[in-house]
Amino acid sequence: MKNTLTLIIALVITSITFAQNTAILAGKITNPTGDIVYLRQMKIEDGKRIELLLDSAQLAADGTFKMQADFTAITEVLFYDGNEMCPLLLKAGDNLYLTLNTKMFDETIIYSGKGAAKNNAIKNLSLMNEVAMNRIYLFDEAADTNEIYEFMDKSFDAIAGVIKDYQNELPDFKTYGDEQLESLAHSKGQIKKELAQQKAFEALLKNLIGTDGINITGVDLKGKKISLSQFKGKTVVIDFWATWCGPCKAEMPAFKVLEEKYGKDINFVSVALYCKQDGWIEMATELGFENNIYLDKKGESQIKDWSINFIPRYVVLDKDFKIVDAHAARPSGEMEALLLKLNPDLK
Mind listing the pLDDT tens digit for each residue in 262-315? Predict the structure, then answer.
């Protein structure tokens, strides 16, 4: 009898402890994009970012689900529907209910139950950030940078004010709020830097139009010296790429089509850089482009004035070796229209 009583007490204590440490997330999804939902946590282990699966649940026919996980402290987790995700704050004892319609994922999320306040705050901040960012990137390209900065400062300061209000109202939001304030400040600085770089790049492109092309010199597939000026006398299309560049490789079939279609009248020149020569030889040989140039690290310095900081990048020169477009449309896009404009006899 004594042993039985001890076992019962132990089971009760275990049950209470389990309940105290457990957070429950249940809900209903309209228009689900998958059959299973997931609850995950991002952690840093040995300097690497890893994703831990806390729980998963099969959606019922009506879109309902229920998951749970144990927590010893308030924790940021990620809820995954089949196609999108959203961050949550959960702690032991939370009993959160989520509803959403995947046709407007973020906009339709509603939380209720224990733990809802802090998670509705997260959702509201996410939408505020989205509205501000969309407005920033909708500014006219010709808009004064200071005008954009002023709008950004006002918007981000307003969001920071809301974060601080949530921190005052919701004790559970304090640490998360501090992280968001830090992230907000970093984002503002980073966006301003990117906008400044974009403006400088646009000014560079504008100033390059009509200037002489750079006589890029490298080696061909036979290891012989080759210079871009050898192709003077016809329109020249330069494709800057690297062996590891996925978007570069995605454009190559379209580039090959243009070369096969107009190669007798237009010089298509494939210029590889930022990659190893042996890998380039193998890939360029397989691709079969007519004109190939490889630039080693020393050779890459030749094009610093063109700011080839990202690839693929396409530059078009006219018959006189003057720059027509220093950041031309991609082969799969409007490049053919530009080439036909420069060479009306080809239409």
Answer: 999 999 999 999 999 999 999 999 999 999 999 999 989 999 889 898 899 999
Give residue 4's pLDDT: 55
Cα end-to-end distance, the chain, whole Å: 99
CA distance 269 to 216: 11
Q: What pLDDT score was predicted for residue 149?
A: 85
Confidence at residue 19, expressed as pLDDT on a 0 to 100 scale: 52
CA distance 4 to 170: 45
Domain 1-114 carries which CATH code?
Answer: 2.60.40
Enter the tokens of residue 310.
């990202």
CA 22 to chain CA centroid, Å, is 34
**CA nearest 318: which of 341, 286, 284?**
341
Tokens describing residue 98: 């989520």
Amino acid 195: pLDDT: 81
Residues 95/116, Cβ–Cβ less than 8 Å? no
pLDDT for position 6: 54
Question: What are the CA-CA distances from residue 176 to residues 94, 132, 166, 172 (Å)?
Answer: 17, 20, 10, 8
| Bridge partner residues of 225 (DSSP) | 219
Give dist(CA 117, CA 172) in Å, integer.
Answer: 9
Q: Residue 247: is the preceding peptide bond cis (ω within 30°)?
A: no
Superfamily covering domain 217-346: Glutaredoxin (3.40.30.10)
Residue type, 147: E
Kind plus residue range of the DSSP H or E element containing 203: helix 174-208
| 312 and 241 Cβ atoms separated by less than 8 Å | yes
Residues 154 and 136: beta-carbon distance below 8 Å: no
pLDDT, tens only, 127-146: 998 888 888 777 766 667 78
Alpha-carbon span 295 to 271, nearest angstrom: 7
d(CA 88, CA 210): 54
Collect the ranges in the chain with pLDDT lower than 70.
Answer: 1-20, 140-143
